[in-house]
Amino acid sequence: MKRKGIILCVVLGVALLIGGGAYVYANSQPAPTVAVKTAPLSKATLQNTISATGVIESYTKVKVSDTSNDNIEKIYVSVGQWVAKDDWLCQLYNKADDSYSYVKATTSGTITAMNAVKGNPANGELFTIEDTNDLKVRGKVKEADLNHIHENMPVLVKADATGDKIFPGNLTKIAPTAIKNENSSANATATKAEFEVEVDLPSDVTGLKIGMTTRLNIVSEERADVFCVPFEALVVNDAGQTSIYIAKENPVEQGSYTVEAIPVTTGLETDSLIEIAGDQLSEGLAIISQPQTVSPGMAVSVEAGV
Predict the structure, then answer these.
(1) What is the pLDDT confidence band of residue 253, given thresholds at 50, 70 and 90?
(2) How far is CA 231 from CA 144, 269, 272, 288, 289, in A?
(3) pLDDT band, residue 88 (cuts 50/70/90)
(4) 21, 41, 164, 261: which sits with the fewest CB atoms below 10 Å from its CB?
(5) H or E, element range at 18
(6) Beta strand 194-200 with 265-269: parallel, antiparallel or unpaired?
(7) Whole-angstrom Cα distance, residue 120 to residue 107?
(8) Which of residues 294 and 8 earns the better pLDDT score?
């Protein structure tokens, strides 16, 4: 019996040694790290824009008319041709007194429309002359956007024919009243009002033509050269303090990172990004993209290639 007791004590002692060693070993090993995705903090220009559509027009549009009813004997120009002021556009013949006269250009520009037909009487608008190098966009904005815009705002102008090229415009006019809908009636379903706007175009309008449809982005807010992050990169604590989390590399152990919280203030918001500012911010900080999965002081690893 005594011998059995001794054996039992030996077995328990060995078990305790093994268990204790395993416990010490387990606690001596570093806790498993969480893999996180990061993106380098950088500066950008943030913009909020109001979308609109428009049609390209010329500032100079002159109708040349004649109501003499004299016969159009000759036409000297064609659509697309440039003319100078006082150039002959067509020749008229008066049969009653067997005399000739001429319809002249009243301004310099390009012939963009022609109603004159050889052999027909001159009675009304015969030619349209426009300056194709002095252009504007006549557009329209929705009623809901009207209070967000004002004159002299920058406008980004694009057209399908010019691809990704952006023409810098300037908002020069906002109509005081809504565009009238001639097809509307008292019994028709009410539609939201739209207001006409005008956008001045730069002197270099290469590729743009009168009558083209354009897409307008009126820049209502802009912040240049500011730090910005996606909305999901922000963390707000119980006290209402906003922070970003970064993966800070251990200076002693290369490849080892710790989560650190950096307090920030927020500014301009766009559809996907938000401006941030703070004394501790600098370009290149490894911003943790999904901070909700970690907490400050936690050891993390940075996923390769991110």
Answers:
(1) confident
(2) 25, 9, 7, 12, 10
(3) very high
(4) 164
(5) helix 2-28
(6) unpaired
(7) 24
(8) 294
Same-domain status, 182 and 113: no
CA 148/CA 252 separation, integer angstroms: 53
Residue with tokens 């050889």: 118
Instruction: Kindly list the distances between the CA atom of residue 116 and the CA atoms of 92, 102, 108, 128, 289, in Å, as whole numbers in the listed order.
Output: 11, 13, 18, 10, 67
Note whether residue 77 is domain-resident.
Answer: yes
* Domains of the chain: total: 3
Are 38 and 53 in a shared domain?
A: no
Which of residues 14 and 104 earns the better pLDDT score?
Answer: 104
Measure the CA angle with vertex 170, ends 167 and 175; round to 5°: 125
CB neighbours of residue 136 within 10 Å: 20
Read off the pLDDT of each residue in 109-132 and give the average, rounded to a whole number: 96
Residue count (the chain):
306
Is 198 inside any structural domain?
yes
DSSP symbol at 292: G
Quick one: 71 and 120 in the same domain? yes
Buried b (16+ CB within 10 A) or exposed e, 180-212: eeeeeeeeeeeeeebbbbbbbbeeebeebebeb
**Domain boundaries, position 71:** 61-130
- Residue-averaged pLDDT of the chain: 88
* pLDDT in the model for residue 19: 53
Q: Pick the residue with more confidence: 181 or 165?
A: 165
The domain that contains 232 carries what CATH number?
2.40.420.20
Residue 18: pLDDT band (50, 70, 90) is low
Q: Please, which pLDDT band fits residue 130 given cuts at 50, 70 and 90?
A: very high
Q: Would you say 244 and 264 are in contact if contact means Cβ atoms under 8 Å apart? A: yes
DSSP E strands, 5-42:
34-36, 38-40
Domain boundary among 97, 130, 163: 130
Strands (DSSP E) contained in 108-166 are: 109-114, 124-130, 135-142, 154-159
